Amino acid sequence: MTEHKRSVGTEIGRPAEELIATAAAVKTASRQLALAPTDVKNRALLRIAAELRARASDILAANAHDCASAIRTAQQTGKDPLLDRLTLTEGRLENMARDTEAVAALQDPVGEEIERTVRPNGLIVTRRRVPLGVVGVVYESRPNVTSDVAVLCIKTGNGVLLRGGSDALETNTVVVSVIRDGLAAASLPPDAVALVGSSDRGLVEQLLGLREYLDVIIPRGGEGLIRFVIDHAKVPVIETGAGVCHTYVDRRADPGMALEVTYNAKVRRPTICNALDTLLVHRDLAPSWLPVMAARWVDAGVEIHADRSAAAILGTARIPHRAAVNDDWGREFLALVAAVKVVESLDEALQHIERHGSGHSEAIVTDDEVAARRFVAEVDAAAVYVNASTQFTDGGEFGLGAEVGISTQKMHARGPMGLRELTTYKWVVLGSGQTRP
Amino acid sequence: MTEHKRSVGTEIGRPAEELIATAAAVKTASRQLALAPTDVKNRALLRIAAELRARASDILAANAHDCASAIRTAQQTGKDPLLDRLTLTEGRLENMARDTEAVAALQDPVGEEIERTVRPNGLIVTRRRVPLGVVGVVYESRPNVTSDVAVLCIKTGNGVLLRGGSDALETNTVVVSVIRDGLAAASLPPDAVALVGSSDRGLVEQLLGLREYLDVIIPRGGEGLIRFVIDHAKVPVIETGAGVCHTYVDRRADPGMALEVTYNAKVRRPTICNALDTLLVHRDLAPSWLPVMAARWVDAGVEIHADRSAAAILGTARIPHRAAVNDDWGREFLALVAAVKVVESLDEALQHIERHGSGHSEAIVTDDEVAARRFVAEVDAAAVYVNASTQFTDGGEFGLGAEVGISTQKMHARGPMGLRELTTYKWVVLGSGQTRP
How far apart are the C-alpha atoms of B70 and B29, rounded to whole Å? Predict the structure, then answer.
């Protein structure tokens, strides 16, 4: 979030007025895009995919500039330039093009009639799915987010105002110009997708207040960014973010299954939000099972932070570990680190999750149907698992086809958000002269 | 909103800590309420209805105190005490009891399985409807909102933290104690419903920031209150509010139907958000139709603010009117006042609505199917009508059974919100040891 803490001051003209003019242009264009038939939107998407490939050298050259600047800045400031996230390769660019084609192939939710009732007075009351309008997306370095988000918004008939990381400005500028050209080639208004180039922090705050032009803001990035957006937004926000995920291995878990599920939940990709942070093990199973599990984790490079009971078991088995500190509970490690706690009961596990979970993804491993049913009913999280790895929390894995992000709030959308979550509805009421008594 | 502009300063103790303790108690209780079976929740509701009747004299006595204080304050400050909104009568109390019984009779949305898919790897991915958690409601004088909102929240398994107007504090205190007793009588946790008694403005701001305890805030009241909530909330808000509603009478409208619909949209209840504010008339129809319409309105006491073309027609017909000023377009009158404009075309009507509407309720009167289809597609509002009065925008009229409010935002819920709009969903994933490749 450091990018929000400096005011670059390289603006010329009046950036606030330019921002408003840009947002107004997106809104006007979004009204046209909202009415576009599915095949026209798909034509634009396929053109964008083709142009991402055709203009690969331009995009990669711009990205090379961005990376070089990031390295220079890093040398001056001694800060990690997050180069991996910033860097585009031919392979990553090809993925951006393929993802765009995949979205073109998905079903368009816009226009769907959700509900229809005929009232006693003859009024036909229907709900129809329509685009949200204009979506603001505030994100960090990764330039693939630019095409991901723009493509999902185009498919759902939404305008989008993008505010990417200033590190990736040159890359994003070229990618957005490719997208706008693709829209124009399909006779759709290019202004439906726009990039806010400035890295002026005050301008980002102003963007978050543009209630007249934006219908929703989606922040994508680290905790600092999300906090900043929540604190400053006047436009409704769909919060995405931190996952403090637990896996509870019940006294009646199948030990072999518990090993596979727990290993996968931590090790498959430790740096994503649905990765295991804390393992809770029932005390009846812990003495026999935990040393086997921990040894596997340690082989995979996992650092274990154990509570007193777990430490006693691991100590006896001579498995390397550290003593857990209070801050380990409820911490999202995003690394090969796991906290481990031995619990007395399902109730203790539920209480621990209630206190320390972030409402993202939580799992129980058990053969006891009663325990499974209680866990599912009582855990308040976007995704609750029985006998499966929390790493499945993902739009693709849940069958949504694409993912805009994973919501950690309860309003509008919860968990993985697909195309439908970029829409709202409109009540359409068809009458024949009805008046209300 | 004047109540938010003063800091009463009569607090003793540490109100901020008391607020947090209250919110924490609501959250804990809400977890239990979320798991309550429908029949238990209904038993509580029926008990509440019975107690509202049994304790009528207590409630009316408290209300008499509130009204007396409001009159004293009004004498001191010269301000309108909004006595009508504050006053409870036996009839109004009986309505509160009946509304409570009606909600008990509605279907419980909680627990409904919205979706179920079996993935190729055998994972069963379902979405289940669950309560939002804790709903914060910030409202003004009307004490019936207290029972309305609490009852809807109980039915949907939500805890609720109520912050009513300080004018109605004694009344609300008794009503909330009746509701809590009803919960206790059904063995449900009374703390699921709590009232924030303080009128300290800083405390309201703090309530709006209680992200740890509240899942959503619903403001109910005037524009000032809603603005205050949006400006200060860190918790997600469902905005309810202003309706600037247009009725467009097309060149191909049935003149008789247009008279009925337009008359009803303004006159039936002029003080509610779905009442007509601006009438747009196609120029082909205006010379013959507008004088008849305007004469009816004038007979009903409607004050007409006419644009130049409308004024010319009304002047010739000697129908009383004023010249419209710029501020009349986009103004919510909430009174027997209507702005009238003659438009050249459907396009001009659509542009006018886009510019001045508030996205609430908009109507076209026409026999032209093409015009109707364009109007429905292009007008961006919660409710769009063809050949019917905008006064139908209401949860009951749309078949929702009850209404929490009318949302004017696009996220989560749009237009009338019923019980379902007080819920969210949880992804429940049932596996047999699946790990993600």
Answer: 34
Give me the residues of B, 347-376, that contact A with CB < 8 A: 354, 376
* Contact between A373 and A346 (Cβ < 8 Å): no
Residues forming beta bridges with residue A194, ordered by sequence position: A161
A237 forms beta bridges with: A217
Buried b (16+ CB within 10 A) or exposed e, B266-291: bbbebeebbbbbbbbbbbebbeebbb
Q: Which residue of B113, B214, B421, B429 is the best one to mutate when testing the A interface, meaning the one whose CB has the most A CBs within 10 A? A: B429
Residues 109-128 of B with CB under 8 A from A: 117, 119, 123, 125
Of B335, B322, B267, the residue nearest B296 (C-alpha): B267
Contacts of B89 (CB under 8 A, 6+ apart): B60
3 state SS of B436: coil
**Global confidence as pTM:** 0.89
Contacts of A31 in chain B (CB under 8 A): 354, 378, 380
Helix, strand and coil percent figures for chain B, each rounded to 5:
45, 20, 35
- Among B368, B414, B426, pick the best mutation site for testing chain A contact (most A Cβ within 10 A): B426
Tens digits of pLDDT across chain A (437 residues):
333 333 333 344 466 888 999 999 999 999 999 999 999 999 999 999 999 999 999 999 999 999 999 888 888 876 665 787 899 999 999 999 999 999 999 999 999 999 999 999 999 999 999 999 999 999 987 888 899 999 999 999 999 999 998 889 999 999 999 999 999 999 999 999 999 986 677 888 899 999 999 999 999 888 888 889 988 999 999 988 789 999 999 999 999 999 999 999 999 999 888 999 999 999 999 999 999 999 999 999 999 999 999 999 999 999 999 999 999 999 999 999 999 999 999 999 999 999 999 999 999 999 999 999 999 999 999 999 999 999 999 998 998 888 888 998 899 999 999 999 999 999 999 999 999 99
Could you tell me what percentage of chain A is helix, strand and coil, using 3-state DSSP and rounding each to the nearest 5? 45, 20, 35
Q: Which two tokens stand for residue B106?
A: 């509605």
B276 forms bridges with which residues in the sheet? B245
What strands, in cross-sheet order, belong to the sheet with A159-163?
A193-195, A159-163, A134-139, A216-220
ipTM: 0.90
